[in-house]
Amino acid sequence: MNKNTYLNNGYDQVVADRERDFILRLVVAFVFIVIFFLLLFGRFVYLQIVKHDEYVVRANTNRISLVPTAPIRGEIVDVNGVVLAHNYPAYSLEIVPSKIEGKLDDTIEALRRYVDITEGDMRRFKKFRVEFRSYENIPLKLKLNPDEAANLAAQLYRFKGVEINARTFRSYRYPELMAHVLGYIGRISDSDQKRLETENASALYRGSTHIGKSGLERFYERQLHGVPGYQEVEKDAYGNIVHVLRSVPAKTGKTLRLAMDIRLQQEADRLMGDRRGAMVALNPQTGGVLAFVSKPSFDPNLFIDGIDTESWKGLNEDWQRPLINRVTQGLYPPGSTFKPFMGMALLESGKIDQNTIVPAPGAWSIPGSRHLFRDSVRRGHGSANLSKAIQVSSDTFFYRLGYELGIDKTSPYLAEFGLGEQTGIDLPHEYRGVLPSREWKAKRFAKAKNPRSREWQAAEMVSVSIGQGYNAYTPLQMAQATASLANDGVVYRPHLVKELLDHDRREITLIDPKPERTIPFKYDNFEYIKEAMSKVLKPGGTAHRIGHGLQYTMGGKTGTAQVVQIKQGASYNAAALAEQHRDHAWFISFAPLEKPQIAIAVLLENGGWGASAAPLARALTDYYLLTLKAGQLTGPVPKEPLLTNQEHVEVSQTAASAPVVRSETSPFKQAYDNIANIQAASGAVR
């Protein structure tokens, strides 16, 4: 074999090997393709035949969505239907940051050409940006005026991620006058959301942005909020709504009708003026709150959509503490307004009777002690029975008898009037106050190093017996105690709401007042104390000046409560003290003596002598009994028209045609825990 033949054979072999490799690869590729297509076909069969029904359901689910619709919040009206808290529609400018193209600041600057965006709007927006997620609608400007909404609507195509949405806003028509009664709503926070999840109520707030934060808005949140509805909508591939398939309307929240007449509330506020303190009036026959004023106050409208930092700082750091509800959260020693209740303890315990006369000198000492406890009148009152001691407010009379009776026997009788316990009013965060007792002191000073600090000392009863010492009560507690005494021991729980109006079911649920309990004291002792309190307004009494010209019978008691202790032998000099260290002025009253219709507690912080608070109670009682109850008012009393003609018609028609459902249980039982309870028109409220 020559060289050329050898080379040709080798070349042919290489070509043959290459062809064989090519064919092998081709076969492998073909097999792979066949297998791949078999897999695809198998998957196709699996999806289109085996899983057909399942994916049809999924496709429809993706195509059809449920969009929640928030309910309209219920209104709050006074006893005559005057609207105090209402809703109104308006447009808001909102931004979804995740959808914005370009820089957010550039978008906002461009929007300024069409909308007046203030510095306050920007502060609120920056605050919301921290609280909201990037895909949520963040309000940039609330309540656009019609021109702004119209001008911007025509340009919205230029601003991706910018929306104009119709919203319902809450408004308080008597803001500072009713702030501590109504409270306010605010945006649902993370803590609110956690609480709703704990209560299994999250479903009720789908689509909602606000929740009650304080006052009646919080206490009756479930009734006011209503029940959300939903829309079943069809969407395209881009998430746009094509059309609405089905709609279930939301159920409007219930209207709260108060026991209060806004005109009496206005009068109480006018009488308080710029004074710091509280004034509360109750109906002793029902427990209904007739007036409820805490001064100073604040504007609850500031909180609805997030209060700005400067306003919050101003309210929070104000030394006058306008955010504190002094009626239910202000704790003060009651001073001599405590004496009628102390007198009941002395009578009921048998320590004295109605005719017992004891010395009432200008000063008194505990046996074996040289420390003098002085009377407010240096010369004293000679001797006195209990009636005179209440009329002239003798301290030494109560020093002696209170010390002798002791705390163990005294405290249970005082507890019968509800002192040191929550009244149960339909408001959140009510304080209990302090009714001193041996057990209370041991608990209060449990961590004290000195064992004597935990033990009750007999001498402590001296100051306690005249409403000083450890005594600390709210004006509401004193008003309820006064009402219970005036009502011969029949105790009603104070309540602001008189009835609930369900617009959807057109039913009214009455808060049917029933006595909570009856104080088991002798009828004659109640009458004796009430008669003694009536003498306080007569010549010789500490409030005799307000007794002149009375057209009805009235009982009362002044009280001067020390804020700081005066040194032994020193005289009280208000001018030498800082305002915050001056005495508090108290006055409690009820009228008329027979079947009383109004009981009042007035507290003027650092107001001086108790007699300075008495004229306010007299003036409010005059207005209630001689003007409101007598029907002597003519013409429209509210400062502004609060109801439109249509609203008047709706309220009147609803009230006239609505069946009445009486609450058979306690009116303050915890309100509805779930949707079914919320829908039950006859459900009781706490």
TrEMBL record:
<comment type="similarity">
    <text>Belongs to the transpeptidase family. MrdA subfamily.</text>
</comment>
<feature type="domain" description="Penicillin-binding protein dimerisation">
    <location>
        <begin position="69"/>
        <end position="244"/>
    </location>
</feature>
<comment type="function">
    <text>Catalyzes cross-linking of the peptidoglycan cell wall.</text>
</comment>
<dbReference type="GO" id="GO:0071972">
    <property type="term" value="F:peptidoglycan L,D-transpeptidase activity"/>
</dbReference>
<dbReference type="GO" id="GO:0009252">
    <property type="term" value="P:peptidoglycan biosynthetic process"/>
</dbReference>
<comment type="pathway">
    <text>Cell wall biogenesis; peptidoglycan biosynthesis.</text>
</comment>
<dbReference type="InterPro" id="IPR036138">
    <property type="entry name" value="PBP_dimer_sf"/>
</dbReference>
<keyword id="KW-0645">Protease</keyword>
<dbReference type="InterPro" id="IPR005311">
    <property type="entry name" value="PBP_dimer"/>
</dbReference>
<dbReference type="GO" id="GO:0009002">
    <property type="term" value="F:serine-type D-Ala-D-Ala carboxypeptidase activity"/>
</dbReference>
<protein>
    <recommendedName>
        <fullName>Peptidoglycan D,D-transpeptidase MrdA</fullName>
        <ecNumber>3.4.16.4</ecNumber>
    </recommendedName>
</protein>
<keyword id="KW-0472">Membrane</keyword>
<feature type="transmembrane region" description="Helical">
    <location>
        <begin position="22"/>
        <end position="46"/>
    </location>
</feature>
<dbReference type="InterPro" id="IPR012338">
    <property type="entry name" value="Beta-lactam/transpept-like"/>
</dbReference>
<keyword id="KW-0378">Hydrolase</keyword>
<feature type="domain" description="Penicillin-binding protein transpeptidase">
    <location>
        <begin position="277"/>
        <end position="620"/>
    </location>
</feature>
<dbReference type="GO" id="GO:0008360">
    <property type="term" value="P:regulation of cell shape"/>
</dbReference>
<dbReference type="GO" id="GO:0005886">
    <property type="term" value="C:plasma membrane"/>
</dbReference>
<dbReference type="InterPro" id="IPR001460">
    <property type="entry name" value="PCN-bd_Tpept"/>
</dbReference>
<dbReference type="InterPro" id="IPR017790">
    <property type="entry name" value="Penicillin-binding_protein_2"/>
</dbReference>
<keyword id="KW-1003">Cell membrane</keyword>
<dbReference type="InterPro" id="IPR050515">
    <property type="entry name" value="Beta-lactam/transpept"/>
</dbReference>
<keyword id="KW-0573">Peptidoglycan synthesis</keyword>
<keyword id="KW-0961">Cell wall biogenesis/degradation</keyword>
<dbReference type="GO" id="GO:0006508">
    <property type="term" value="P:proteolysis"/>
</dbReference>
<keyword id="KW-0812">Transmembrane</keyword>
<dbReference type="GO" id="GO:0008658">
    <property type="term" value="F:penicillin binding"/>
</dbReference>
<feature type="active site" description="Acyl-ester intermediate">
    <location>
        <position position="336"/>
    </location>
</feature>
<keyword id="KW-1133">Transmembrane helix</keyword>
<dbReference type="Pfam" id="PF00905">
    <property type="entry name" value="Transpeptidase"/>
</dbReference>
<keyword id="KW-0133">Cell shape</keyword>
<keyword id="KW-0121">Carboxypeptidase</keyword>
<keyword id="KW-0997">Cell inner membrane</keyword>
<dbReference type="Pfam" id="PF03717">
    <property type="entry name" value="PBP_dimer"/>
</dbReference>
<dbReference type="GO" id="GO:0071555">
    <property type="term" value="P:cell wall organization"/>
</dbReference>
